[in-house]
Design goal:
- It contains six helices and 15 strands.
- The chain is an alpha/beta fold.
- Strand 13, helix 5 and strand 14 form a beta-alpha-beta unit.
- The two termini are 22 Å apart.
- The structure holds citrulline (CIR).
Amino acid sequence: MSSSYTFSHAIVRQPGESILDGLRAIDIGAPDISIFRKHHADYVAALRSTGATVIELPIAEDFPDSVFVEDSALCLPELAITMRPGAPSRFGESALMRPTLESVYDNVVDLSGSGHVEGGDILTTESEVLVGLSARTDIAGVNALRDILTQWGYSLRIVETPEDILHFKTDCSLLDEETVLCTPKLAATGCFENYRVIHTADGEQASANAIRFNELVIMPEGFPHTRDALLAAGYKVHTVGNSEAAKLDGGMSCLSLRFSPRKRNACQ
Ligand code: CIR
């Protein structure tokens, strides 16, 4: 079993009206909430279609970006680690997520210290945990995360998130044990030298934020050349609209926490 892309569970949170106040690098217009909700429902249906249990959390209007649940925690089979988001408006999202993690995990650990890490900067593969330093993830946070991961037998490798990119995983996704989907720009940093790399097609860099979730590669709609490359490589591809989340720099990975907890009775 490949624990890096085979999952029994996912956690998502429904988007609220306050998503209009969500963070964004460049303002390209307000997200349309009803379209966002439709896309979100399609995303949840795609996760569920693989047989996974999807825990849908209620709207949290106090946290405009809380639909992007991935940034609040790192979920591994043995434990969940709550993050310390680098964006001040998102800091409280980890405490908000904690009770749900406790309901499915025996071990929930908080990232300690004064550093910051957001889940979007973490790519867990079969052999290592890659963490990209970014405007949201700093070295103090990464060192605190390394301390925890080492205790649990994981190896952490620090990588580079290109400067104008929000998160490491904005530009890459794991496809299987040895393969990643990646923008040429991120691949050029050399971080995936030991992996097989499928590049996003020219002009389709925004398709890099996809997820491998059980048998599916779930990717954003509107990137036909990258989609064709994935189909040609033998992946089962499912596309979901992402136009509204993209206005807030969000993509497929940001919208869920994905995991298979080793817990006595992990079901909801
Ligand atoms: C933010 O800037 O924090 C949100 N608007 C988008 C977060 C996207 N999350 C992710 O890439 N993991």
